[in-house]
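pipeline/complex-builder :: batch 7 item 3
reading input block
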Amino acid sequence: MSRVLVVDDDPQLRRALRITLRAAGFDVVTAEDGRTALAEAAAAHPDVVLLDLGLPDLDGTEVLAGLRPWFTGPVVVLSARGDSSDKVGALDAGADDYVTKPFDMAELLARLRVALRRGTAEPGQARVVTDHFTVDLAAKQVTVDGVPVRLTPTEWALLSELVRSPGRLVGQRELLQAVWGPAYERETNYLRVYLAQLRRKLEPDAAHPRYLLTEPGMGYRFSKDPLPPHPSQAQGGPLEGGR
Amino acid sequence: MSRVLVVDDDPQLRRALRITLRAAGFDVVTAEDGRTALAEAAAAHPDVVLLDLGLPDLDGTEVLAGLRPWFTGPVVVLSARGDSSDKVGALDAGADDYVTKPFDMAELLARLRVALRRGTAEPGQARVVTDHFTVDLAAKQVTVDGVPVRLTPTEWALLSELVRSPGRLVGQRELLQAVWGPAYERETNYLRVYLAQLRRKLEPDAAHPRYLLTEPGMGYRFSKDPLPPHPSQAQGGPLEGGR
DNA sequence: GCCGGGCGTCAGGATCCCGTCAAGACCACC
DNA sequence: GGTGGTCTTGACGGGATCCTGACGCCCGGC
């Protein structure tokens, strides 16, 4: 179930949205002004924010600006103002969609579904867990077998880029651009060096990676479900009876 | 620079969009009906598709359905019909945004920016499934009977080119140009070698392909619905009573 | 029956790519 | 000014990948 944070100063609309969204299977949290919204967003970890622009204390754009540095989920703006300049401003400020009041509830629900469809898939998006290590994206913390591990800034940037989309192949150009910037797209050396460091710190056996996989010529892939241990790891397990 | 595919049957609107989008820094490709749209989407590799729902040959929803199995980028729907049910239908069919005509150009550009900001679809969103193997174009992952299979860059480039238009015959020149570049249009050798490798990795019986089919003298075709198994595969099935 | 074009297969060698290591540069903090 | 940590950069060996040519098969035309 997905959690949505509804930010609106109109009690009636809040109530209507709460009822409808709950009926649609959402877990609903509400806020009536900008400060509360920012606090609730941090506290309740919503998957999506439904944000009214006309708030009593803060301008909607300010709320967006306060949200965007750390909130990675989608933000759908709800506003009575239908001017094109308002829309462009909010969308360029980081909003993912813009719906004008009065709005049709079925359409709003559909747009929420679209926003969630592509927002980070897992509800517990801040934590990625494998059998061997855990990555907490919000706290910037990595633990291996429960023990915290120190990562350098570059290592962290690289790891979070990979872990953000489990199972997906991330191209080397994509990684280099995200971590070092567009000017370094050819320095595949960096990737090799830092992937090796990450594997030394995270993998059970750095020489035979099971989670941080190489796709030769294309890029790297973080796999949640580990590959089977390398055969050379013949630690006399009783199951290896054959041969 | 991003490439956008504009699909609309109105020549005037196409022209206006082409000029405005080009001025906004886009590389513009156009199509005037659904069939052309699907072909262009497969051939031109757009980053985003701007799709009018009222097309002469196909319903817009059909174009969406033809696009979504493999197209990993965002699709923004443009429509004169503003009914809520139309919007919900298109959004749930895989569209990323829905703009009603007449529209404000600045807003449309902002929505295109938003769509592109989010980048490609999540793994699992865009996948081509057959009875025997699955191709996840967003994750760049192929599984045969659920087991991940590793493809080399060239193999992947070739396979994705074929899989992008299921059922359609893709000319050898087209394939060679897409994978190796315009200078290699005569090297049909490459196709034979790499098709064989793909068949070895994907087909149940590489000697009698059922999914990656050869059209002698023309090119190759990916078929979702497999051909019946080859008769020589008489593995004692009860139905193979004869002979 | 003969012939030629197109296709599938195979194996070798050249090339590219990756993992690894180590040394130097840079920076922040003490 | 010293020190520890981090980031860059280069070089090297091993392995995977790509290109290439040769061969045999099938099929349609003559």
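note: Residues 188, 191-193, 195-196, 199, 207, 214, 216-217 of chain A lie near DNA strand C (CB under 10 Å from a C1').
queue -> next item
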